[in-house]
Design a protein that fits this description.
3-stranded antiparallel sheet, 2 domains, 3 strands, about 55% helix
Length: about 120
């Protein structure tokens, strides 16, 4: 089992076949951006435990989990097409926690800089 934290709070426990949300997360509506994001963190934990991610560590790494969730919830091409919008608009559009927008902008900018501005997935 993997203990999953987000913003210094325990948000879930995940195994290879199921996960459990902390009560504060589980009680949120299913469409809540935080609940969705945490579910994707749990999916990352599952993929790590089952070996689905070749090249990734064999243990849960929080920053990689967050990157995994951002990449899944905010595809690079779609995000890039809408990047002129405000962080709040993007968070609403992608249904993610507001603080994740700045992180996604940084990831995609770094990727563009390292590839000479060419687009890539993730």
């Amino acid at each position: 089992m993997t203990l999953i934290t987000y913003q210094r709070q325990i948000v879930a426990i995940a195994g290879a076949h199921r996960f459990y949300l902390a009560p504060a997360i589980g009680d949120l509506p299913d469409v809540d951006p935080l609940k969705t994001f945490v579910c994707f963190l749990a999916l990352y934990a599952r993929d790590v435990q089952t070996g689905e991610l070749p090249g990734d560590p064999t243990r849960y790494v929080p920053c990689r989990g967050e990157h995994y969730a951002r990449a899944a919830l905010m595809p690079a091409d779609e995000f890039s097409a809408l990047q002129h919008r405000s962080d709040h608009e993007l968070a609403t559009h992608f249904r993610v926690p507001l603080e994740q927008i700045a992180n996604r902008r940084e990831e995609l900018a770094a990727r563009a800089n390292s590839t000479g501005g060419t687009r890539s997935r993730g």
